[in-house]
Amino acid sequence: MGLVLFALAFISVLYITKKDIGDITNINKKIKHVTTNINNTVLLQRICENIPKRNDEIGALASTVRLMSKTVYQSIQEILQINKEKDLHSEDYNLLSQLRSQAVNKEILLREYYNSYLSAHTESASLTKVSDFYDAFELSSSKLVILVGSLNDSSLMSTYISHINIGLMRQLIRLSESIKLPLAHSMQELNKNIADNNPKSILTSVCIMIIDRKSGEVEYFNAGHNLPIVYRANQGFDYIECRTAPVIGAHTAQQFRSINFNLEPGDSILLYSDGVLDCTNAKLEKLGQVGFENMLHDENFLSPIETVNSLNNKLKKFTKGGSHTKDYTLFLNSAC
User: Fold this and answer.
1) CA 233, CA 270: separation in Å to the nearest integer?
2) Whose CA is closest to 82, among 157, 194, 166, 165?
């Protein structure tokens, strides 16, 4: 009797496990189908309807994939509709101005909402080169997500891709948190889908930090982005000398990971894009890493807003009579 019960239990576990694996494989295929058929209404509807419906963690994953695919589809349709209503030349500048004004509004909201411990600023190289993006949002009552990213594309399309990147990364980060999936795994799946469907080889570098403001613990993920700076109270600044993943969109096979470290009260994190280092003065000299470090030495990092404004003013002073050929972004978070 014991052997019979054991055999039945084993068969039941095997059946449940096989079903879970099957559903996860199915969801993964759906994600790939969504990325390749995002503009096909009929196929997208069929994909969404066939995603498994369950009341557990896998069901939560399926529900999020369904919501994400429909949200991205709607966003792309809105963008396509805007394009139909605009002339390609003069009206594109108006459209870019509208998109950039949204970023400015977001910046104002950031300053008002997070006020004492967070500030960000993006300086665009020109109306036709808007390739940097950043975001900040609360993951829970104690966890804050900050990210800065950059594209290797400077066309009008880069602005659209930046907005879509923010939406996708928000969804994936929240999904990772809800089902306790390591952030690097979600970002690796995003990379696979982009790399498999990337005919123009548009690459995305991004640095993401999930900060627990109660414990000070930070989960750090860096896909080919500039090394961020940590300012330690009474110790000065240093780099986080580690990239945990390759740039997104290049290859599907490489492994992604994240690391953890801790912040103490009074510490700060400075994220920035490569446009900062590429700023050029009137003598055609680039600022570079050493020049940027020299700008940081007399900053006390007591106020994120004052520090970001001060660094931005220094960069503008440096490029007076020269130029910056890329967007640059500064993003500073201070630990309470």
Assistant:
1) 14
2) 157
Q: 254: closest CA among 197, 196, 191?
A: 191
Residue 161, Cβ neighbours under 10 Å: how many? Answer: 17
Terminal alpha carbon distance of the chain: 62
Quick one: pLDDT at residue 314? 94
Total residues found in the chain within this entry? 336
Strand pairing of 204-212 and 143-151?
A: antiparallel
- Measured distance CA(330)–CA(314) in Å, rounded: 12
Three-class DSSP labels, 230-278: EEECCCEEEECCCCCECCECCCCCCCCCCEEEECCCCCEEEEECCCCCC
Residue 10 backbone dihedrals phi, psi, to 5 degrees = -65, -45
Rounded-to-integer distance, Cα 318 and Cα 294, Å: 12
pLDDT tens-digit series, residues 145-190 = 999 999 987 766 777 788 788 888 888 898 888 888 888 988 988 8
Model confidence pLDDT, tens digit, residues 123-141: 877 654 568 888 888 888 8
Residue 19 CB partners (closer than 8 Å, separation 6+): none
Side-chain-side CA neighbours of 300 within 13 Å: the count stands at 3
Strands (E), the chain: 118-123, 132-138, 143-151, 204-212, 217-223, 229-232, 236-239, 259-262, 268-272, 328-334
Q: pLDDT-based confidence at 84, cuts 50/70/90?
A: low
